[in-house]
Amino acid sequence: MVGTIETLGEKGIKDEIAGTGLKKFFLTLQTGSDSTNPKVVGLTTALENLSKQQLTAAEIKAKFGEEGYNVASVLINEAEKVKYYTNAVTGTTVAIEQAITKSQTAAARRAQAKNELTEIGIELIDTLNPAIMGDMNLTTSWTKKLVTLLSWMNKNRTEVALCTSAIAIYTVAVNASVLADKAKNLWTGKVIVSVQKLYLLLRSNPWTALATVILAASVSLYKYATRTSEAEKASRQFRKELTQEQLEAGFLFDALKKANEGTDTRRKLIQTINEKYGQFLTNQLTEKSNWEEIDAALKQVNSSLETQIAMKIKTNAGSSITESYIDDVADKYESMRKIIAKRSSEDIANLYVSDLKALIQSGTKKAGDIYTELKGQYGNVLQYDGYKILLEIKKKTYEYHKEMAELDQKFAFMNPGGGGGGGGG
Q1: What is the per-residue pLDDT for 206?
Q2: What is 102-146 written as a DSSP string?
Q3: Would the pLDDT of 280 be above 70?
Q4: With a threshold of 0.85, does the pTM exceed it?
Q5: Contacting residues for 243 by C-beta, under 8 A, at least 6 apart
């Protein structure tokens, strides 16, 4: 088993994928012919007999299924390497037994040391008992307060949630320099009643205020830390697809090199490779292709697969990021247009939004500068309610350009002089 795991690890097949594939591989062998059953003839002989069958990729997939295909292909093609690793760990049973004996001896010594430490500890506790009791009483008191706090938060979770929202809105408002308007929107209707009720409760238990602030900050930090950008998702998808495709190509080319000349198996493999990867090859393979030509063809295929997959995934990711950005700002532009139309006219509103889009997309001016420039052209048609929307659009646009730049960086290897191949990381 160690030999198979080491061999798979060399090919990049590890963890759950290796475990699932090995399970499927061995179950299939154990229910098949005795000549390929590891329990009957041993793993090394079973793999050698499988290798002699010269199964094609399609036959391997049919025999071992999707889950076992990659594992089976590697072990069949690398039977010698499995044998090498298996022999390398021969004799480890003796080493394990020696380790067990040493561990038992060490365990006995630890037990003795533990008893001695326990006696010393009892002595120390007796000496420090007065101070420790005082600290324990203080700890008990704080524990009771914590339990009370948690119980209160559970019973008043609505008010806690509203307070958390209030803190978040307040912070955004300060950063946006529109605190007065934020406060006006917040302290209305039902929120006023809930916050007033919360205030009375906080007076009776001030620790709740601190806990609420900590809770709100913790949630925000957690969301930020665990967020995965679209560019990073695209990079991971690229690496996954590229590995899968290159692994499959490698299996076919390895099988071709092992196939005897003039056999039907070799002809089928050449046909399969030319049909699947012919568009990537300068010269398609023939019956006369030697090992050097086969290796050169595989390099061409791997390089072309990298470019093709990278282009596809980067294009899809860029479209997804752009579509999300357009959805985010389209409604905001329309809300702003309606606000301006009420204070002026439809024509003015349309012109204002058109000029605003041009200034936003240029990316050279801050929100305040854009607001001032448009105010000089159209007058005071955009007040605080519209200015808040402008800030949101500016923020979304900044995030959009940042994510697109990250996507370009993840796939920089596609561009000449943009770094080495195999990137996407």
Answers
A1: 57
A2: HHHHHHHHHHHHHHHHHHHHHHHHHHHHHHHHHHHHHHHHHHHHH
A3: yes
A4: no
A5: 12
The rounded distance, in Å, linking the Cα atoms of 131 and 134 is 5
Instruction: Check residue 154 and give its pLDDT.
Output: 61
Considering 70-79, 128-137, 170-179, the range whose residues carry the highest mean pLDDT is: 70-79
Identify the DSSP state of 240.
H
**Is residue 340 within 8 Å of 355, Cβ to Cβ?**
no
Nearest alpha carbon to residue 270 among 289, 292, 291: 289
Nearest-angstrom CA–CA distance, 72 and 60: 7
What are the angstrom distances between the C-alpha of 205 and each of 145, 146, 194?
Answer: 9, 11, 16
Residues 213, 216: Cα–Cα separation, whole Å: 5
Q: How far is CA 73 from the centre of its chain?
A: 28
| Nearest-angstrom CA–CA distance, 276 and 251 | 13
Q: In this structure, what are the phi and psi dihedrals at residue 414, rounded to the nearest 5 degrees?
A: -70, -25
Q: What count of other Cβ atoms lies within 10 Å of the Cβ of residue 162?
A: 20
Helix axes 157-175, 207-226, angle to 10 degrees: 70
Axis crossing angle, helix 57-77 with helix 43-52, rounded to the nearest 10: 140
Separation of alpha carbons 388 and 409, rounded Å: 32
pLDDT band at 247 (very low <50, low <70, confident <90, very high): very high
Q: Which of 403, 62, 72, 414 is nearest to 233 (CA)?
A: 403
